Amino acid sequence: VETYPGVVVIEFGGREIARSSGALRVLETSHPPGFYLPAADFAPDSLRPVEGTTWCEFKGEATYYDVVAGSARAERAAWTYPNPTVGYERLAGTVAVYPGRMDRCLVDGEEVQAQPGDFYGGWITSRVVGPFKGAPGTWGW
């Protein structure tokens, strides 16, 4: 987990729903980085808590949000680790989104591409080189 020194922007429902100069970047094996923004950097009412959790062997238990902007809703498109495990404590109070479920996500003005597949939430920019887990046939490496 490292502090990202630039600006991260998330657009959804035709609106900017988050802008942060305090994002955290998480690198995991075989993945493009994930970005976690302070919850306070999201527009009010853009994150609606939903039922259900998942477990990450590294970060612990994740809870989820629907992302909402106007009449647009992306179900379970954002997540947080309310009580992250040792080594990931800095993620408490931050929220990540699946970039492929948003209108646009930007890192320092560059539009990101979503990591392939529907399970991982990595953000691919021109500075990130694969191959990455997530596409068909890449599960388990």
Structure, explained:
The structure is a single chain. The chain has a single domain, classed as Metal Binding Protein, Guanine Nucleotide Exchange Factor, Chain A, CATH 2.170.150.40. Strand 2 and strand 3 form a beta hairpin. The radius of gyration is 14 Å and the shape is globular. Helix content is 0%, strand content 45%. The chain is mostly beta strands and 141 residues long. The mean pLDDT is 91. The strands form 3 sheets. It has a 7-stranded antiparallel beta sheet with strand order 1-4-5-9-8-7-6, with no helix packed on it. A 4-stranded antiparallel beta sheet has the order 3-2-10-11, with no helix packed on it. Strands 12-13 form a two-stranded antiparallel sheet.
Record keyword descriptors for this entry:
0% helix; mainly beta; 141 residues; four-stranded antiparallel sheet; seven-stranded antiparallel sheet; Metal Binding Protein, Guanine Nucleotide Exchange Factor, Chain A
Mean pLDDT rating: 91
The stretches of 5 or more residues where confidence is low (pLDDT under 50) are none
How many discrete structural domains?
A: 1
- What distance lies between the first and last C-alpha atoms, to the nearest angstrom? 22 Å
Per DSSP E runs of 2 or more residues, the count of β-strands stands at 13
Based on CA atoms alone, the radius of gyration comes out at 14 Å
In order across it, which strands form the biggest sheet? 1-4-5-9-8-7-6
CATH top level class name: Mainly Beta
